[in-house]
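Notes from the pairing session

We agreed to fold both candidates in a single pass and log them together. This is the raw record for the first candidate, unedited. Please don't reformat it; downstream parsing expects exactly this layout.

Candidate A
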Amino acid sequence: MILTLSIPMRDGVRLFTAVHLPDDTPGPFPVVLFRTLYNQADRIEAAPGWVKEGFAYVNQDVRCSCRSEGVGWDPWLQEEADGADTLAWIRAQPWCNGQICMVGGSYCGEAQLLAAASGDPALVGCVPQVMPGHFHDSTMYTGGAFLLALNAGWALGSLHRHCGIPCRPELPPLEEMLPTLPIRNLDQVYGFDAPVPWWHAWLDHPDDGPFWARYRLSSRVQAYRCPMLFIGGWFDIYTQDLIDATLAVRTHGATPLTRAATRCIIGPWIHSFQLCGYPIPEGVADRETHADKPERVFVRNLLRAPDVDPLPEAPVFTVFVLGANEWRASDTWPPPGTREQRFYLSAPDGAANTAAGAGRLIETPPAGTEAPDVFLYDPRNPVPTHGGHGICCPAGSLEQSDRELRPDVLVYRSKPLTEALTLLGRVTVELFASSSAADTDFTAVLTDIFPDGRVYNLCNGVLRARYREGLDHQVPLPRNTPVRLRIDLWSIAAQIRPGHRIGLQISSSDFPQFARNLNGGGNPADESRPIPARQTVWHDAAHPSALILPVAP
């Protein structure tokens, strides 16, 4: 039986809701709830499976999207109140037995976290997949650089695709719109009738602070009263958020079961759960076995026994280790025994520009003086995004040889390893750098260099120099003066095998994943004049630039 309803929210707006009920059972039933911006067919098709097991399945279009009412979609913020109202409405229905579990990924995953802040007693579990948690430092900005492709492609695009807001009749391809300057004008490029309020608000708040606190998980986590199963991929845009969310809920969740039964699975996937591109044997990391099946077991067990750990034998973290091509379990992140190991940047025999250069990674700190490496960063010719944590641009672990032919990419490589090096944890680059610009970016990419010369990225990061002392405030960059930068490459699980080499790419752009720094030092949202910059990376006794790796036993 399928009921199609429009249910009222507290302000009178009605949301389209489809209720799928078992035909041969009188009920009431446990409920699986999926609230979506996208009206995804795969989740609607999931309904018969849940119904066959004796559960009700509820699919709802969020405010302003698809068949629901509403004016002025405001990404995410609307979902806290609407999610709470939806849970309360379901709990009051005669076909609900008072137990609800939420599912869904990306926007739909964050919708779960916002709804869970209500502390509704009927919500017995959530399965948030590939979802944001920090918002400022993952969804909007990373290292202070605006996530251009994601927010122009997904957020502005969703206004047209999912919320039905008219735009230009013949919209150019996204890749033709992204070079627009200033980036503030991108909503005009889409051709919306009026400025998009939240687009301008996001750009007007480049610093972390109170504006972003209203979005993030940490402001709500103490209200969570149900276990959560977080699922994502190493090359998703929200990888680090997933890990941090797991640790936060296990530490601060409102009940002992919430804390004890929350877990995390991270596979070699991009945001869409496709394999990342790194060479992986067939069948060892399929989504059905390692993501979908655990989700079903978690939901099924909670709805049938809401006071019992649904995965009693499972570790807290189950992660796929690239290179080793195996799944590894741990109850902490990073795992016990993980230590930091530094590989220092060096180029004593010449410049590190391109893979043909003299850049090296060495295990001993540089002694004495060593000439720095120099490259020209021209915002008119940025390094193109090719792999990494991304949406709306090429994401994953992709072969990097062409990228390393560019003279504005510094390449540092270790000697071939004689023993495997297993990395489990967060990767950092400590860089001593200077620039001729009033402000600029530095990017870093950790790579695995195969014996046959192939190069695959493992994790990446960026830092806008004005945020080198914290993402909540800006500090002017002194021209042509070395400063210390810590570039966060987020977490990874990977094994560099014997015969392989560790690689590091340093540059100043990764476009269109990140908006270009035009080097002018002004408001990045409103700058429109690209200024080339002379970038210098220092690696000597006084400036020991280093790649810092989390090496596991």
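Candidate B (folded immediately after A)
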Amino acid sequence: MVVVEEPLLRKIQMIDGQETLQGKETAYLCLRYDETDIEPVNAVGADTGESRQFNMTKEGYNLFLTAEPPEFRGLLEASGHDNVSILYVSQELTLVLSAPEAICAGQEFTVEVLVVKNERTAPVHFRLEGESAFVDSEDGRVCLEFRESPEEKRRVYAARFQLKARQLSGMDSPLFPSGGEINLELGSHSYKNYVEVETRCHVCADEAQMEERYQLTDNLERRLRGRDIPIYLAKLELIHSAGSMFLASVTNLPFRQRLSREMDQGGERELQAVTTSVRSLEYWQKPDVKAIYQQSTGGLHFDFGIPAPEQYDYAVSHGTVDLVMPGGLRVNSKVYSDEIAHGLGPGAVDVRLSIEFADRNADGETALQFGNSEVFRGRTSPVSPPWVEAAALVYPERGTMRIGLWLHDMVDGNHITVHYFAQKPERDTSRILAQRQVSLTVTPEFARVSRRGSLRFQAEVVGSEDKNVLWKIREEGGGSIDRNGVYQAPELPGTYEIVATAGADETVTASAFVIVE
């Protein structure tokens, strides 16, 4: 039994096995029972070479990712399917047949075909048919035909077929004694073959005999079957782009493995509800997943964060360069700077230049001239900037540049100050993060409180004069919280998410989790 006692927050990059997903289109999120030796002590009387042993074993779990599909026979048998046969396996599709080990004469029974497909797999149409010794039919043959609807969005599901057993007793026979013929269509692709179907059924005279047979076959080995098989929490469809990995779709509990909880001291169990949701992250954030257990309802919720498509941003740089004027006649002369670094590193950079001068009509206030200075020359011009043209020569490989001036007329003074403004497209995550004006944190991040108890949450807003915060509880019936962050717990125990939204920017949120006991 695996117990997850509190919400588990993990980014995908933090989960074991994520390094094996490069180039894979499909992956599985799994949960497995785990044990860790703790409290080391001296190894008294141990074998030669052993210096210590452990006094206790701590039970826990391991959450991991794998690109390997499950071993379907063992997986289904561990879930109570006694007769399992693999009908078809490819990268696009897997078909697995299962049927009851014992059936009752004259009654209907269910045969299932597990369909496991990928996101881009075409609609499935298959037909499996062959002769059967114990199925009641007009011609003694069984035909299992299924055509998937084009609107079907599930990636893993079971196609169920109702059959009826003949009035026989004590008969043990394969479902298809002579094998079956399978015809498969996937879009324009067709496949036909004869397969050996290992599924066998025993026909009992009545329900009492069938129950007696189950009692005889029930043993410890049967109970422990599949103990080493992990719980497949989700099937993930992956997209790889520009060195990053994105989630295209999520199928929760794809193989219907049971997650159960104790209902009372009598040991009754209930099938647990598992739900999923997907939220959008900034393009520079890493994909992540949160698992939230709702104790009051036995529900398990997985919240997947998927980054938005990547966008460009721009790095900018500004500086000044003083160019000394030549002596003597300056009309129609040119002057150049040394090679200087523009501050944005190697790569294509866009540079704009301006000439600094003192505006005499504004009491000598400093002004910057961009573009053609002749626009402001003439009797009606409000200012008289220097008659100078500026240009820049950029060296992308070295991350440097030179600035040149063309003097069309005499210039006051012995130097001219040139301002440069450079920009370059980039994906500098650290700089983009630093530019985010508003951030929000909530404390405490995790807390415990008794039923109908109260607790105060505090929110810190950074990067804005507006410190207002809007509080809410994500789950319905999860209690109440006022404008000051004072939380009132409900009567029902469980784990609830408290969400704070910054008043200055509604896209900036932070969450905390409270466990009501």
